[in-house]
Amino acid sequence: MEKYQKYGINPLLISVANGQDVVSLSPRPTVAMLPGKYSKLVYKHIKTVNAEFPENSFRLTCRQCDKSGDYDLGTVVFSTDATEHRKGVNKFQALGYFRCKHCNAAGEWELSPRIQTMLAAKMAAATISSLNGTDRPDGVIFGEAIIDRVFLPRWGSDAESYFLKKLNETPDNAYFWNRLGNTYYRGKRPELAVFAYEQALIKDVGQVESHYSIGKILIECGELEKASDHLRQAVEFSHQYKYMTAYDLREIIVGALEILLTIYKQSDNKINMLPKPNEQAIVQLTKNQIAATAMLDFEIEYNSRETLYPLAEVYLGERRNELLPEERAIRKQNNKAVWPLASKVNKQKPAKKNKNRRKR
Ligand SMILES: [Zn+2]
């Protein structure tokens, strides 16, 4: 087996990304063949990145080539109405992304009676523990994994097919690339996830969720500088990002700022925490807002997520207005926003224009 070929990759992924005819591509691509910056790097740290996910290895037989192998199903989702019937074990979804080690096919698997029993036991243990209120066994969730409210993927590779089909029709849709990335990430294939996120950013440099996710993955790989670069961009572009509610967006910004603050400290204050005020994406912020962002980092209490909310709301821009007044960290007085640390900002040397005004 070639280097970088331990886990299967769908040739269609490369074809959709670069428009090459799939028949001209290797039927078994390697990570080195992915036209992106980060896949090889992330592949080297795949175990660390995947540490948050459970391992659920089972022996499955490929219906295409009849050969068996051990595959990591990742998180297993049992349908809630299946809990009543033991035979309902067939009603499960596996979020792990894997392909046949022998023929690189995906999605058609034979489960031996023994594996079915093992899965049933896992489900029973999970049911009992949720009844007792004790911790559920790792990697089991009750419910349904639904995409776009209509599609229930049986395997991680079904979710991939869903998004590749959409992307085949609209290859420039950055949002779909991002969601394909999420599918790979949950499928324990972060090297493919970063590739999809990178594609999202090629199509739309303001794809906030992709910047954020790449940043989080690169942190796990020890790439502080590269990670902070993406996290800062997630913050920077957030005010123009349309695919999330203002509340969720604020959480993303706070999350990014939290990590950026840690990086800032770890790098002995060498790696910038905040986007530079002259970055293209934030030039539309008002002077007061930029001043607030420039000063605020001195007032942040370490280890206190709460103190990051006012700063996050500065970066939300106009979308801040979508937050209910009582749920905002930045308060308004007489219809004017009271910027955090306004007093401190005012203590700065006033701009020339202000100076003249003062003299009068
Ligand atoms: Zn096979």
Molecular structure report:
By secondary structure, the chain is mainly α. The protein has a domain at 205-349. The protein contains 14 helices and 8 strands. The protein has a 3-stranded antiparallel β-sheet with strand order 2-1-5, with no helix packed on it. The chain has a 3-stranded mixed β-sheet with strand order 4-3-6, covered by helices on one side. A hairpin with a 5-residue loop joins strand 1 (57-62) and strand 2. The protein is globular. The model is unreliable at 341-360 (pLDDT under 50). The structure holds zinc ion. Zinc ion is lined by residues 62, 64-65, 67, 100, 102-103, 105. Residues 62, 64-65, 67, 100, 102-103, 105 line the site of zinc ion (ZN).
Please describe the topology of this protein.
Elements: H1 11-18, H2 39-44, H3 46-49, E1 57-62, E2 68-72, E3 76-78, E4 92-94, E5 109-110, H4 113-132, E6 140-142, H5 156-169, H6 174-186, H7 190-203, H8 208-220, H9 224-237, H10 246-266, H11 287-296, H12 309-316, E7 332-333, E8 336-337, H13 342-347, H14 352-359
Parallel strand pairs: 3-6
Antiparallel strand pairs: 1-2, 1-5, 3-4, 7-8
Helix pairs in contact: 5-6, 6-7, 7-8, 8-9, 9-10, 10-12
The protein binds zinc ion.
Spatial strand order of the main sheet: 2-1-5
What gap, in angstroms, lies between the N and C termini?
A: 79 Å
Low-confidence stretches: 341-360
Number of strands: 8
Quote the beta fraction: 5-15%
Rounded Rg:
24 Å
Number of helices: 14
Order of helices and strands: HHHEEEEEHEHHHHHHHHEEHH
The shape is globular
Estimated helix fraction: 40-55%
Q: Which cofactors or ions or other ligands sit in this model?
A: zinc ion
Mean pLDDT: 84
Major sheet description = 3 strands, antiparallel
**Secondary-structure class:** mainly alpha
